[in-house]
Every structure is written in C-alpha cells, then in structure tokens.
Amino acid sequence: MQFHQIKYFIAVAETLHFGNAAKKLNMSQPPLSQQIQKLEESLEVKLFNRTKRNVELTEAGSVFLQEAYKIMEQIESSTDKIKQHSNGEIGELILGYSSYSIFDVLPMILDTFYKLYPTVEVKLKHLSTAKQIEAFENSEIQVGLLCPPIDQTNLNLELIYSQPFIVALPSNHPLSRDNKNESLHISELSNCPFILTPRSIGTGYYDSIINLCFDAHFSPKVVQEVNDLHELISLVSTGLGVSIVPESLIQYKKSNVVFKRLNNDQFKVDTALVYKNTETSPVVYNFIDIARRILRDTV
C-alpha cells in the first residue's frame, strides 16, 4: 500500500465514479483503475462493487475510507510539523545568560522571540561567562549571552550590546550625598573599599573594571567578592563598599543604594552573543537573527 494509492482511493470513494475521480486527479482512468486494483490486492479485500452503471463502496471499503482519512490527516499533520521544525517554529532553545543581561538585553530579545515563535520552548540558565563556556563544552546550552573576550575557537562570538559602567554607592557615602554632581570621576573612588565579582567567573568583565581603575592611577581595594550582581548590590546597600557595575543595573531599585554615572563614559561593558560554529538548529538561528535586528544599532 502506497500513499498515492490511498489518495486515489479517497477520490473514487467520494465521487463513486472512476471517470470523475480521474479528472479530479488530473490523470487518465486506466492507470487509476489499475492502482485501485493493486490496493485491493495488497489489502486482500474488495473495496468497491463495480457494475457498468454504478460504483459502490463495499462494507470493507467504507471502513477503509475512514481509516484513509485518518492516515491523510496524520500525514498532513506530520508534514506541517516537519516544515515548522525546519523553519525553527517549534523545538527547544537552551539559553545561558549573565547577571547583567537580565536587566536589558535578554528581555528585549525574548519579548520579540516569544511573539514570533510562541511554540518554541525556551529554557533559561543563569550562568557566569566561565560557566557558560563549560556549558557549551558539555552541550548544556545552545546560545550564550556573556561578557567577552573568550578564547574558544569552536565558538562564534558577536558583539550585540555595549553600555557604560556606573558606580553603585551606599546611600550614606559622602559621594552619594553630593547632590551637586550627578556624575563623578573614577579617581574619587581610589580610597573606597570595593565589592567585585571574581575574575574566575568572567575575565573580560573583571579586567574591564580593573583597567578602568588603573587608568585613574589606582588599584581598587577589594574587600569582598561575590558571584552575582544582585548579591553585590545588596552588599553595597549595607555600606560594606562601593562597586562599578553596568548601567542597566539602575533598573534594579534597591534601598540604601545610589547610582552615579562616571563623567567619562568611554569605559564600557560589552555583551556578546555566543554559539557553536557547528550549530545547525533553525531555532538557534532564529534567535540570533532577532538579537541582531533588535540590537544592531546599540553597539
């Protein structure tokens, strides 16, 4: 039994006329009759009662017609799913993201992605840059949003977003109470205790902050290191120290914390989109395309 034989059978069963069915199928009648005969032989059952004047379904033919409809529906459904899969409209996306991307980059991309591909299941993993590299090596994520640079040659990296650093201060800090100046120079922090994320979880992010301080001729006095920016801001609120963080953290409203801009905003933190150079998933490339379109003017 072949697919085209089922299609021919349905046409004859619905018209109960071989000539009309042949016209509907855009074929001549003899080949149609031959295919129906082969179908009956393969099923070892008679599907039609034929006379010179009439064509009627047998009882077996009536039963087979209902099954034929189900087969055709299943084939159409499977065909649609295959097309959706090849277009990246269904499937799964496993995405790693760094702490600071949750405040701007990630929501901007996902908002559009969810609207365009509502049937794709997105799994999010909050991971540092170092942990994302490990996750790629273990095939635990397909796309990453992280702070460059990275050294892995098997990963593609595209800069998609750049934002200036700002300073997070305890509200009782003297620099916080200076309402005359909405911004400050990095050198004004030279004697302040710092709270930073460790270099081990993201060399690019850590080195950017250290270099910023070095350019102002001082080395930051680090009194505490924490792995997460939310925790970092919470510690700033206790008065333990100050920190330099991405501008997007201004959205994170925390009592007893004041954010101030640096008067030189040339020091920026980048967000990169990373994926394996062997990646073939249409879902992944749909996500990449959306990220590129949304953020193309922000770098």
TrEMBL record:
Any GO MF annotation of the entry: DNA-binding transcription factor activity
UniProt keyword NADP present: no
SUPFAM superfamilies xrefs: Periplasmic binding protein-like II, Winged helix' DNA-binding domain
Keywords of this entry: DNA-binding, Transcription, Transcription regulation
Source organism superkingdom: Bacteria
PROSITE patterns with a match to the protein in the record: HTH_LYSR
Gene3D superfamilies: Periplasmic binding protein-like II (3.40.190.10), Winged helix-like DNA-binding domain superfamily/Winged helix DNA-binding domain (1.10.10.10)
GO cellular component terms, semicolon-separated: protein-DNA complex
UniProt-listed Pfam families: HTH_1, LysR_substrate
Annotated HTH lysR-type domain residues: 1-58
Keyword Cytoplasm: no
PANTHER family given in the database record: HCA OPERON TRANSCRIPTIONAL ACTIVATOR HCAR (PTHR30346:SF0), TRANSCRIPTIONAL DUAL REGULATOR HCAR-RELATED (PTHR30346)
Similarity comment text for this entry: Belongs to the LysR transcriptional regulatory family.
Official protein name in the record: LysR family transcriptional regulator
Organism: Pseudogracilibacillus auburnensis
Organism lineage: Bacteria, Bacillati, Bacillota, Bacilli, Bacillales
